[in-house]
Design goal:
Strand order of the largest sheet: 7-9-4-12-6-10
Strand content: over 45%
Number of helices: 1
Largest sheet: 6 strands, antiparallel
Number of strands: 13
Order of helices and strands: EEHEEEEEEEEEEE
Distance between the termini: 32 Å
Structural class: mainly beta
Length: 212
């Protein structure tokens, strides 16, 4: 049986059609379909209540180890019928003098089959559809894990002590869904070199929960 063929027209179609008018798919000269975002990028995920954000206010951040302080996210969903945590955005800042902290990194770990011990809840965990249900993931400000995570990507470079005046611009990165946490894995913001001082950092992480 031959493959189905979808036809189209190369280039924009004119005159501009009114709502409800049938049109062919617009193609570029190579035959690739031309598309544009009809809604804001994350609207569909947020509208379907599958987009979440965790926030930690005024936390120390530890170097990578089994016992972590700072923002962590564990995929608490079951292996069968659970969800993948698809990381989208991460950001934060160091706001208390932490001169020996070289950098912040995102570290990841696996083999976490039960909840971390010694838990401290994140400052806030919310559905991005405000009022929507909570996540299957567990977001923490402190927890002890079975295995220590290891750094995967750098988030920011800390060049010097943060003064008591002025403002540290911090960092804001978009992972664009390029990091996925399946069930029984987790990620954590980790300090490099030395821990961030007590109450020294704010951080947030946004993710989508999609079926395994």
């Amino acid at each position: 049986m031959p493959d189905a063929v979808i036809g189209g027209v190369v280039g924009p179609q004119a005159p501009r059609a009114s709502d409800g008018s049938p049109l062919d798919i617009s193609l570029d000269p190579t035959g690739a379909a031309l598309v544009s975002e009809r809604q804001p990028r994350y609207f569909e995920l947020a509208w379907r209540k599958t987009l979440f954000t965790a926030y930690c206010l005024s936390q120390a951040i530890s170097v990578a180890g089994a016992a972590m302080v700072g923002l962590q996210l564990w995929n608490a969903s079951p292996v069968v019928g659970g969800v993948n945590l698809v990381l989208l955005k991460i950001g934060g800042l160091i706001k208390v003098s932490s001169a020996t902290t070289v950098a912040l990194a995102l570290a990841t770990g696996s083999g976490q089959v039960s909840a971390p011990t010694g838990q401290t809840a994140a400052t806030r965990v919310a559905n991005n559809f405000i009022g929507g249900p909570g996540p299957q993931a567990l977001a923490l400000a402190a927890g002890t894990f079975t295995n220590a995570p290891t750094a995967l990507v750098n988030l920011m470079h800390n060049t010097a002590a943060i003064a008591t005046t002025g403002e540290d611009p911090g960092f804001a990165l978009d992972f664009e869904g390029s990091i996925v946490l399946p069930p029984q894995t987790y990620c954590a913001i980790a300090a490099v070199g030395a821990a961030v001082a007590a109450a020294g950092a704010d951080a947030h992480l946004m993710w989508a929960e999609l079926p395994v």
